[in-house]
């Protein structure tokens, strides 16, 4: 669960779509981890055969651990488990909660789970978007953030063992929190799967060492001010704050319409900022989001030209400079106009391109030491 590759796997999975007045993009990368354990789901128009849900959309990110079996299963089945609940049509919150609990209970009986062969688990953060509101459910430390009128207006709470309410449940179930982990091992206090932490007799499913119960939030939509919703695993949030990520995405939306490019740049920037985990993001863009405009596009071109000029000057003065030293020199400069929240890390690809162009015989772009 904690093993790393010698060099990161930087291949990306990317997907885009639109419907119900929304546009979305997905990007994920294995990164330094030996296995890709993240999964996702995106359905932008119509959740099922029910006509009443035709103008609803659903998005989710699952951050697996100790294997990818549970995260993949949840990506395939959580939506169906929720909309199949009788409560969902009358009370969305109750339907979502019951869907989580029922899916978790049924997974316990999968052969590889019941035999103990597979001990994997996953966090889950999902969002149902209707014409009037957002229903956001979180179980674990993946996170959803809503950007409204230029800044984070809402964020889910990460379920960590050190939270007083989470620690109290763990202790009541006979466990302990050591080094910020459940029984010194698991770094999240709520998750789907992880059945070895859900065997305390006499206690219900939400009273175990690890709970499958989602925390559910409701937000009214503001069609004028809502800009975008981000769902992402902790591989993103480990290196980007809510404010940083919102600022960075806003700056990218001002220079390009291509959501695939925006989501991909987020993942790349997180890698360059030092994330050592799998990274996944679902970006859902509302009609009120920023759009590209000429001044921002020109400012981006000017920034790239400035960086290219600095790189040429540094390499002209120091022809044998190593790539890592070049980045360090650029980082020490007060370069104006770098993307907010992304900084120099967001321009790493340009720096590598220029370095290879100017020093084609060198092969030390620091691929094994991004952070």
From TrEMBL:
A family per Pfam: PP2C
Record's subcellular location: Cytoplasm, Cytosol; Membrane
Lipid bilayer topology: Lipid-anchor
InterPro entries xrefs: PP2C, PP2C_BS, PP2C_C, PP2C_C_sf, PPM-type-like_dom_sf, PPM-type_phosphatase-like_dom
PANTHER family, sorted: PROTEIN PHOSPHATASE
Cited PROSITE patterns: PPM_1 (PS01032), PPM_2 (PS51746)
Cofactor(s) in the UniProt record: Mg(2+); Mn(2+)
Record carries keyword Lipoprotein: yes
Keyword Ribonucleoprotein: no
Taxonomy of the source species: Eukaryota, Metazoa, Ecdysozoa, Arthropoda, Hexapoda
Family recorded in the similarity comment: Belongs to the PP2C family.
Keywords, sorted A to Z: Cytoplasm, Hydrolase, Lipoprotein, Magnesium, Manganese, Membrane, Metal-binding, Myristate, Phosphoprotein, Protein phosphatase
Gene3D superfamilies named in the record: Phosphatase 2C, C-terminal domain suprefamily, PPM-type phosphatase domain
Gene, per the UniProt record: 109536249
Domain of life: Eukaryota
Principal localisation: cytoplasm
Record SMART domains: PP2C_SIG (SM00331), PP2Cc (SM00332)
GO terms for MF: magnesium ion binding; manganese ion binding; protein serine/threonine phosphatase activity
The organism of origin for this protein: Dendroctonus ponderosae (Mountain pine beetle)
Name assigned to this protein: PPM-type phosphatase domain-containing protein
Domain PPM-type phosphatase per the UniProt entry, residue ranges: 23-286
Any single Gene Ontology cellular-component annotation: cytosol
